[in-house]
Amino acid sequence: MKIGIVNYKLGNLGSVYSAFKFYNYDVNLINEIKDFKKNDLIVLAGVGNFKTAVSKLKELKFWDKLNEEIIICKKPVLGICLGMQLFAGVSYEEEKENGFGWIKGKVVKIEGVSLRVPHIGWDAVGPLDNQLFQGMRDNFFYFMHSYHFIPEDKNTIIATTKYGELEIVSVVRKDNITGVQFHPEKSQGDGLRFLKNFLMTIS
Amino acid sequence: MTSLRIIPFFLLKGKRLVKGTQFKDFKDVGDPLSQAMIYDAQGADEIIIVDIEASRGNKIIDTNIINRMISKCRLPIGAGGGIKTVQDADECFRAGADKIIVNTHAILRPPLVKELVKEFGSQSVVVSLDVRKNKGSGYDVYVFSGEKKVDNDFNTLIKKLIDCGAGEFIITSIDKEGTLSGFDYDLYAVVRNLIPVPLIASGGCGCYEDIVKLHQQTDCDACAIGKLLFLRDYDIVRIKSYIKGKKVLTREA
Hints:
The complex is a heterodimer. By secondary structure, chain A is α/β, with parallel strands linked by helices. Chain A is built from six helices and 13 strands. In chain A, strand 1, helix 1 (14-22) and strand 2 (26-30) form a beta-alpha-beta unit. The longest helix of chain A has 15 residues, at 188-202. Chain B has one domain (5-245): TIM Barrel (Alpha-Beta Barrel).
């Protein structure tokens, strides 16, 4: 299986790349439109601002291509952090901006009386009965975000993370589309196991 | 609640890691890549690496070192040293840093934080402050690795940096740094009330109990550890099992 990480000039893709490399997968960066075709799995990662991400994807003409690959060709996609949030119909980060809308829902700021925002650090994810979490040593994964995704269809929610009075959606899945709010590529052994499990579910 | 993070704090000088006492008398403590791999394997929650000569030398941290660390380690890495512009930060992110650490240039020009936050989001921008207790009851802030005192009032500066969007703070007590005599608990208890974002305590950690005490007295989100790891026989696994036994929420190493 060929894994392509979308390089839309937004930060840090090296860790995602080296995490897949750890298991010797055939992984490469998608730098141009023609690179999409040769990959079997598309990975959308990236850090930063929702609006900037949308405009960079459009600037590179990746936006329509991604819609085609994911919705028409049904190619598997993994979204990590901001990559997952881009699946949403709409984001309210600073100003309203439309996402891909692959999974209906909205991205909103983490808010709560006793909460520190941004949410940074290792937190427990559950339930772990999904195939994605098979063989985990523990249930802690690394989070780093100020906004979170609330899907409309609760059936798309695979796992959540309790953060104060909030229940943050940490894994979403709908057909060929999978997103994680935490960073498996930064979550040591369990993070690597998660990626491997994910790849098993799509291959 | 998020678990208390234990963060090895790497001070980079040239191509090597060093550790001193109160920002002086540095000793070589190894190679950044091999040390990073060791603490990753032990289950450190994050690594912070800062080039302590970068600001004074008017350069930024060697991004090749960051790149080598992220290709071998599977934990979040915060990197800093000399970051003065969005471009500098971008170089660090491209090399693979998950967060950038800004100190001197953010203090001298707080709008830098705003510019970085706009581009990278506040979750990736950590402000580092080096402070020393003054003769009154307050703290003075130092830049250029503790070399130069600035005139800013400590509390006002913190508020300003928060207004600019700082996503996290690491506050180092220069008086305590490298002394192994315990954290400056009063400092963190006071600034905790001013800082709504995550706070990392740094300077003075000398035994397991210091971390437990920090957690009980100050509600910090993380602690940075240096000498304890580099020059004493402590490791992350044992630190975590100890504090877990003392009811501190920690991720099992």
